[in-house]
Write a structure and sequence with these properties.
Layout lengths: L1 E5 H11 L14 E7 L2 E7 L3 E8 L1 E4 L1 E6 H10 L4 E6 L4 E6 L2 E6 L16 E6 H11 L14 E7 L2 E7 L3 E8 L8 E6 H10 L5 E6 L3 E5 L3 E6 L18 E6 H11 L10 E6 L2 E8 L3 E10 L5 E5 L1 H10 L4 E6 L6 E4 L4 E5 L6
Antiparallel strand pairs: 1-5, 1-7, 2-3, 2-6, 3-4, 4-17, 7-8, 8-9, 10-15, 11-12, 11-14, 12-13, 13-25, 15-16, 16-17, 18-21, 18-23, 19-20, 19-22, 20-21, 23-24, 24-25
Length: 364
């Protein structure tokens, strides 16, 4: 195997794939990147057996072939060399010689036959979504997914293709985020998919916000096709809980708040919430919202925000981070804070098909 490649192109491809490797103590082959050279391009693939990612770019092929090399070492080496042409030659014993400017590296690889095979796109449902739309939808819900390994089904994002809409939902049992967007697909392609959080994070890193994204869905896996990158992931095969039953059908009070002012006030008050045991109180009164936080033996914080509200006084306790998360994820100037009383779930809405349900804290 022998090739020449522009350093910046090679580095971009390696950067796309180098995050997806298995941890130390796993099979050595899972620490490597599969390099396949031929037809005027190089394909780079890594996997941790749950997620696989493949990137490709053009190169000058002098001799076709394939091998696997330690991806972290290769990435670090290419990062260090000067911009220009990189020459790579691999012998029959998987020993790679890399030349770039005055730099020379030698890396020992493993045979490509040991590398796990990628799944084939067979009997699949295919959906097409704008990269920008998909990226924004993930941003608006992914923070609400559970981080608890014992709640496997909730440790991901539900993608529901139904009624010509893509609905994304994430919940950890204490809060729920939901966003919808119209997407065209065939009636027989209606389907629910639960995407693991690790795949969600990788998508958020790789999505550029330009062009379309193709989703190829099979029984136990999904493939995302971007421009020069393909991401394969297993899906969570357990049924997602009925999230609709936790969304309040009605709320008595609808309070309009400037999103950024509320976010800033919560941020300032959260200085006093040293851990999750502490909370922030929101006091809604005619024309104003008072945000207060206190910690025993430390101090207290208080901030006031003007609001559009003329109802009775309502005091509700929340984890401040759980209120700030959706405010950071949406772009509207104003949001509506919908409540019934201090014991019932609150709902945050804005001008787009988005909602966020949050359970209040009960402090004894």
């Amino acid at each position: 195997m022998k090739l020449k490649i522009v350093r910046s192109k090679f580095l971009e491809g390696l950067k796309s794939v180098q995050n997806i490797v298995a941890g130390k103590g796993s099979l050595p082959i899972l620490q490597n990147v599969l390099l396949e050279v031929g037809g005027g391009e190089i394909k780079m693939t890594t996997t941790d057996l749950d997620i696989s990612i493949k990137a490709s770019c053009g190169c000058e092929v002098e001799e076709s072939g394939s091998t696997t090399l330690p991806v972290k070492l290769l990435f670090n080496a290419i990062t260090k060399v000067a911009e220009g042409e990189v020459e790579i030659e691999v012998d029959e014993k998987e020993r790679a010689s890399i030349s770039a400017g005055n730099a020379r590296y030698k890396l020992v690889g493993l045979p490509e036959k040991e590398f796990p095979r990628l799944p084939k796109d067979e009997d699949a449902y295919v959906y097409t979504v704008s990269q920008q739309v998909f990226k924004e939808m993930l941003k608006k819900v992914s923070y609400a997914a559970s981080q608890d390994d014992t709640r496997r089904t909730l440790k991901g994002v539900l993608m529901s293709f139904k009624d010509n809409k893509l609905t994304m939902v994430a919940t950890d049992g204490r809060r729920l985020a939901l966003v919808e967007n119209e997407v065209e697909f065939l009636k027989d392609a209606e389907k629910d998919i639960v995407l693991p959080s690790k795949a969600v994070a990788e998508l958020q890193r790789c999505l550029l916000g330009e062009g379309d994204l193709s989703l190829i869905v099979q029984k136990s896996q999904i493939c995302f096709k971007l421009d020069n990158v393909m991401i394969y992931s297993k899906v969570i095969d357990d049924a997602y809980p009925n999230y609709k039953q936790v969304i309040p059908k009605e709320t008595a009070e609808h309070i309009t708040v400037d999103r950024q002012l509320m976010l800033d006030a919560l941020d300032r008050a959260s200085v006093m919430t040293m851990d999750e045991a502490h909370s922030t109180k929101l006091i809604f009164e005619s024309g104003k919202l008072t945000v207060t936080s206190a910690a025993s033996d430390i101090g207290e914080a208080k901030d006031v925000v003007p609001i559009k509200y003329a109802g009775e006084k309502i005091e509700i306790m929340f984890n401040p981070s759980y209120v700030m998360d959706p405010l950071k994820a949406i772009d509207d100037d104003e949001i509506t804070f919908n409540v019934n009383d201090e014991h019932s779930p609150a709902v945050i809405k804005c001008s787009i098909p988005f909602l966020y349900v949050l359970m209040p804290l009960r402090i004894s």
